[in-house]
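BUG: 3D viewer hangs when loading the predicted structure for this chain

Environment: internal workstation, default settings.
Expected: structure renders.
Actual: progress bar stalls at 90%.

Input used:
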Amino acid sequence: MKKVLSVLAVVVLTFSMSAQEESKVVWCPTCGIDLVIDEVDEFNGYTKKKTEFYTIATSEEAIVKAAAYRVENVLALEVYVKPLYSDTPVDLGCAGSFKNYIMFLYEDGRTVKIDKDRSDINCSDGAASMYVMNNIRTRGITKLRLQMSESYLDATSVKTSGSWKSIEHLLEAVD
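Structure tokens produced before the viewer hung:
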């Protein structure tokens, strides 16, 4: 009888622990971020990853969309501006210009400026600029300024839910 009760106690305890483990909610900032590239180069062994474009910031007239890249140990952010309303174009100029930069404003008032746009020159609507993000702190960004060849846009970072993601979460998804 003791043996049966011991076995029964172990079974009940096991099911009880399993139920507790399944009920834990795990916060996953990179969940829901889709990768469009996730491969290893067969010639050199480099890891290549790229996310879809997600909204990272918004202003009164436009939204800023971004995708994160990783090739081996280089992290980059590709950004472009999309009009909030389809009939009002937002023309900031050309991607790839030597005048372009992206600047981040943090919660503590600090700013960081990345002034080398790695994109090829492209003056079409919606052209994306690309900035290397290695060694850039991404936690706590509240606003960003995207300067292109003709003008700039200041935008406020968005909350992370649904198709709205933070720069930090995009870069974590490809890391």
